[in-house]
Amino acid sequence: MGRDDSARLLHRFDRWMYRGGRPGRLARVMNRQSVLAASAGLAPRRLVAMEVPGRRTGRRVSLPLVVADHEGDRYLVSMLGDTANWVRNVRAADGRVVLRHGRAEAVRLEEVEVGARAPVLRRYLALAPGARAHLRVDQRAPLEEFARIADRVPVFRILPDRPESGDRSGS
């Protein structure tokens, strides 16, 4: 079995774990372990546990995500696209979440415009090999290839969560 065959087999396994666009039982178990490791600061720095209130229950939902760094900013990407529960929960929470990697960091996630996503997506695939099966673009592909899928892959810039002032007029 060659390297390409091994990669194809691994990608099929990754897609199987998230069939239907949702994590199956094995993926949920592995995600729980990753959340524990990231929360304790034991995972690689790029892996964080994100906590977001569930849009229906309000209960805290924790999941592991890879942080992609690009041009001095940090980003989170949804490898499962627009319909991933965490994306819906983040939107319902007005982007306010907590990221954990040894310590808690309150942040606000700001959705990136489709036209600016391509370079972040390429960087994300370089850091998150498990996502390659879902995005189906070679990590070394030209930016044009990433631009073709950018409208289906939400990207969020991580910003400090600053309490809003009572003045919403923008002045």
Structural notes for this entry:
- The protein is of the alpha+beta class.
- Helices cover 35% and strands 25% of the residues.
- The chain contains six helices and six strands; from the N terminus they run ααβββαββαααβ.
- The protein has a six-stranded antiparallel β-barrel.
- α4 (118-127) packs across α6.
- It starts with a helix and ends in an 11-residue tail after the last strand.
Distance between the termini: 63 Å
- What's the total helix number? 6
- Provide the spatial order of strands within the biggest beta sheet: 1-2-3-6-5-4
- Estimate the global geometry from the Cα principal axes: globular
Overall structural class, as computed from helix and strand content, comes to alpha+beta
What order do the helices and strands follow? HHEEEHEEHHHE
- The percentage helix is 25-40%
Low-confidence stretches: 167-171
How many individual β-strands? 6
Largest sheet: 6 strands, antiparallel, barrel
What proportion of the residues form beta strands (DSSP E)? 15-25%
Q: Output mean pLDDT.
A: 89
Give Rg in angstroms.
16 Å
Provide the fold topology:
Elements: H1 3-17, H2 25-39, E1 47-53, E2 60-70, E3 73-77, H3 85-92, E4 96-100, E5 104-111, H4 118-127, H5 132-135, H6 143-149, E6 155-160
Antiparallel strand pairs: 1-2, 1-4, 2-3, 3-6, 4-5, 5-6
Helix pairs in contact: 4-6
What can be said about this structure in brief?
This protein is 35% helix and 25% strand.
